Amino acid sequence: MARVMFDIDVLRTFSTGIALGSFARAADRLGRSTSAVSAQLKKLESQAGTPLVRKAGRGLVLTDAGETLLAYAHRLLEINDEAAAAMRGVDLEGWVRLGLQEDLGEHVLPGVLGRFARAHPKVRIEACVARSADLREKLELGQLDLALLWEAEGRLSQAHGERLVRLPLQWLGPASLEALDAPWWAERRRPGAKKGREPLPLVLLDAPCPLREIVTAVLDRAGVPWRHAFTSASLAALWAATSAGLGLSARTALGLPAQVRVLDRAGTGLPALPSMALAMYRAQAQPEAPVARLAELLREAVCAGGLEALERPRLQ
After folding, report:
1. Best exposed site among 92, 106, 191, 249 by fewest CB in 10 Å?
2. Dmax over Cα atoms in the chain, in whole Å?
3. What are phi and psi of 263, to 5 degrees?
4. Helix, strand, coil shares of the chain as percentages rounded to 5?
5. Residue 311: phi, psi to the nearest 5?
6. Helix/strand/coil for 246
7. What pLDDT, in 10s, does the model give residues 53-92?
8. pLDDT tens digits, 40-59
9. What global pTM score does this model have?
10. What is the DSSP string of 103-136?
11. Distance between CA 123 and CA 145 in Å, rounded?
């Protein structure tokens, strides 16, 4: 039997298409024609000897074989990119000032820093974990080279930015609904009961917070009474309060800790929440090599995490 040698370039197209949810978007991201990308996918399926994706409505869904190959593709691409980066950047030196929000610092940063440090041990990274308003101000003052920010509006808020992923906001509760042993939750779950007579307790960040304003505005429009049950400047404190059943919180499913889960809205009377976009901003249109390389790794990590978040199951 002939040995199969998967093409790294083809695997990258496959991985990018799945992360973006469209091979047409992958063609645009990778600078190729859609026909070239289609030919690459056919080649990959021929090498695998089985279909890797199937149509599902207007989108694509991985087959079992596709899920298996995607996991290997991520590993192969990571090793390949580390090797290439190490060869290109053996003497890469400098300093990168990175800004990001608390949830991204916990979810995205550890893996990215490990890959970056192995390939570029002479580059120093200074990370600033802060809220979006503080990060925007630091970017404007030239105190950051690179920043990841959640955007509620449809357009980018600053220059030299790119939208990486757009994810729906979700209602969040404790990992086990046993923690929600409260009259307000029992009322919302009782079949045929009038929803919303008890104010919905909210667990949100202190003001000013764009997400806090979005959630309360949505509830007001839906006629759902609410109250602030717990507020804090710390995201970790919010996760603790949510997991203890003090109330419901809201955020995207990207990087959620194990103690909280996305809630299924069916039968609860909870209104749908809008989406938010995660954008990456650079202080300069053409950043220096260390900044550009870190931006590349962050982009890959966020796209992979966004796909995982979209597939996260909901707690009934």
Report:
1. 191
2. 68
3. -95, 145
4. 45, 20, 35
5. -95, 0
6. coil
7. 887 776 678 899 999 999 899 888 888 877 776 666 556 6
8. 889 999 888 889 988 777 66
9. 0.67
10. HHHHHTHHHHHHHHHHH-TTEEEEEEE--HHHHH
11. 14
